[in-house]
User: What shape does this take?
Amino acid sequence: MLKIGKGRLDRLLVRLGDQAYARIRQMISDGWIPTRTVVRESYLARQLGVSRTPVREALQRLVAEGYLSAIPQGGYFVVQLSIGDLEDVYEVRGVLEGLAARRAADHATRTDLAQLEDLYEAMEGARARGDDAQLARLNSQFHATVARGGGNAYLQSMLGEIREIFERFRPAALTHPGRREAAHAEHRGLLEALRARDVDGAERLAQQHVRGALAVRLEIEQQLAEAVRLEAEQQLAERAG
Assistant: This one.
């Protein structure tokens, strides 16, 4: 019978925990685990094909990072930002994205612009296929490339931190009626402003893009709150009956 030393076993568990963490986090970002849906350790272990130990460690990391919240009855759900938090973080994002676009219009190289064109075309393909998960990833790459084109490492870092928050919610926003098409047109306009070296236009379009995303996000939140209210009323009516 093959024996595994304790040190080797510990390293194996760490690696499996890291892999489980990366996969569960991606599941959250892709919208595979919707907000307000309770998921359990045993279910995720079956889905990932691993034991519960690495899944438990991964879930604890995601709780510590604010992606998940544990519930007393057992299980976890994806943390949702409050309306106030959403408005605050979008306000910061609008300023940073506007500055990044302004700097990119002035400093982006031809290579940067070519990469943005390639990403835009890839997004067009993902949009046509209805592949929202891929569209969300490409969208993040597009904005990261704009920030990189501005040549300000501090700005890139700040946007990267904020983008991690939005990656949890972007797939849901993209499925909102008309948002795919609107966002695609906004990206086209921003790309054209960058190519024209229109610093004011690029900043304005980037900020408009963020405001449009916030409006959709708030509408989704209102719809979810209404759905929760109606469900609660229905449950009360069923109990009363």
About this structure: The chain has a mean pLDDT of 85. Residues 83-227 form a domain with the Four Helix Bundle (Hemerythrin (Met), subunit A) fold (CATH 1.20.120.530).
